[in-house]
TrEMBL record:
Keywords of this entry: Membrane, Transmembrane, Transmembrane helix
The keyword Isomerase is assigned to this record: no
Protein name in UniProt: Type VII secretion integral membrane protein EccD
Listed transmembrane segments: 94-117, 123-142, 154-175, 181-200, 212-232, 238-259, 304-323, 335-352, 364-381, 387-407, 428-451
Domain of life: Bacteria
Length: 452
């Protein structure tokens, strides 16, 4: 072997990809990566990062001798911010900016309260709110909110709230079943606004969320409409609706993430898609592009966040309905309501352990807190004896102790055991919530009357 073959080459060949351009460079070993990038006018220090052949980030001061011979180095530049995004970034963290949509929502609530209190304003208020809902859908399309993929802003939910308020105000409360009819009309109006959003909106996450909400609101309208024919009151229908909310929340991930026919998602094995013999043989995909993945994830996130928020809102509104059978005379309904009072908070609180995002974990917990606070008012007023107050105080103290012990217990070796215990408790709560809700709603009494 000669001396020339033993000596290291004085040059290093690398390839650099900047956006859609590729540069093949031959750089002396004594230079740095920054010098090599400056040859074609690139400055990665200002708003850019360099990644090596293995995907690791490479510092621009790295010597060329440390680079891989023939390696491909990619420059990833940050997307330039628009003027609106720069204004949003300038807002301090923790500062809540009240936008026009919040003002519109507050004015809509005020108009709804005035229309309900004054009969002569009921129909004009309903027309005004309905017109505002339709106009809000078009304004939201013309001036979309800037946010992360899959995030739905207040401009998406405000037209839904206005349409529901318009239907609630427009139905006069002068006949039997008018309350159920008003709620069914509110759900139907929200479904129509979601359908309008699907038609005119070009933002795919918003269209995906609207398509999922159409099904939910349509089903809710059918349920509350049929309750008039069955003979259920507002409380009974609210209990039935509440009993199925935990099951619907639990089924959201498996219902929103879909794959091609011939595949199935094995959610028990880290969300991996595997091939199964059911159905036809799936089409082979050699490569999957990043924009395609981001598109699917954004749509699924939008559906998941929208449905989680809507189901949590329904749970918060229906949870106080437990108070009527809980304080009633029927022992079956009373004990069923007590079981429902235990199962619903358990299912909603323990379900948050399966999600990582605050947008999916926080709404059910807030719904439990708000619903229990509203429920506690009539229950505490009814319980005037010292024994009952002592039991209530003991339950409150036990809940506070349990909340204080959650964090230390979850940080040691027994956290796996507690997690399995939580899984068992959640499974029981999910299984018995619909049954307890149907019994608390007086389904047995209804069936006895129908059969007799």
């Amino acid at each position: 072997m000669t001396e020339s073959t033993k000596a290291a080459p004085a040059l290093r060949r690398i390839a650099v990809r900047d956006a859609d351009r590729r540069h093949d460079l031959v750089v002396p070993l004594g230079q740095t990566l920054a010098h090599a990038l400056s040859v074609f006018g690139s400055d990665p220090v200002s708003g850019g990062r360099v990644f090596g052949p293995g995907g690791e980030e490479i510092a621009v001061r790295t010597p060329v001798a440390d680079l891989r011979e023939g390696g491909l180095y990619t420059i990833a530049r940050e997307r330039p911010l628009s003027a609106r995004e720069r204004r949003r970034a300038a807002v301090p963290r923790g500062f809540a900016r009240v936008g026009p949509w919040w003002v519109l929502l507050g004015c809509a609530v005020l108009v709804g309260l005035l229309s309900i209190s004054l009969d002569q304003l009921r129909m004009p208020g309903a027309i005004l709110l309905g017109f505002g809902a339709i106009l809000g859908v078009f304004i939201a399309e013309l001036r979309p909110e800037m946010g992360e993929h899959g995030r739905l802003g207040i401009s998406f939910y405000t037209p839904l709230a206005l349409s529901a308020l318009a239907a609630l105000v427009g139905v006069p409360q002068t006949f039997d079943g008018s309350a159920q009819l008003a709620i069914a009309a509110a759900a139907a109006a929200a479904a129509l606004v979601c359908a309008l959003t699907m038609v005119i909106n070009t933002d795919t996450p918003r269209r995906a969320a609207a398509s999922a909400l159409v099904v939910v609101f349509a089903g809710l309208a059918v349920l509350w409409g049929l309750s008039i024919l069955v003979g259920y009151g507002v409380t009974q229908t609210a209990l039935v609706t509440l009993g199925f909310i935990p099951l619907l929340l639990r089924a959201l991930p498996s219902a929103l993430f879909t794959v091609d026919e011939g595949y199935q998602i094995d959610f028990g094995r880290f969300m991996t898609a595997r091939w199964t013999v059911r159905g036809r043989v799936p089409e082979y995909r050699p490569t999957v592009s990043v924009p395609e993945i981001e598109h699917v994830v954004a749509e699924a996130l939008a559906r998941l966040r929208a449905l989680t928020l809507v189901f949590s809102l329904i749970a918060a509104l229906c949870l106080p309905a437990i108070g009527e059978p809980l304080l009633g005379d029927s022992p079956i309904e009373r004990w069923s309501a007590l079981a429902l009072l235990v199962f619903i908070p358990l299912a909603l609180l323990l379900g948050g352990r399966r999600v990582s995002g605050a947008a999916q974990r926080t709404p059910p917990r807030v719904a439990v807190m708000v619903g229990l606070i509203v429920l506690a008012v009539p229950v505490v007023i009814h319980l005037t004896g010292m024994l009952a107050l002592g039991i209530a105080a003991g339950l409150l103290l036990g809940a506070l102790l349990a909340a204080a012990l959650i964090v230390p217990f979850s940080r040691n070796a027994r956290s796996l055991g507690w997690s399995r215990t939580g899984d068992i408790a959640e499974s029981f709560a999910l299984a018995f919530s619909p049954v307890a809700a149907l019994l608390a709603a007086g389904t047995l009494t209804l069936l006895q009357g129908a059969l007799s």
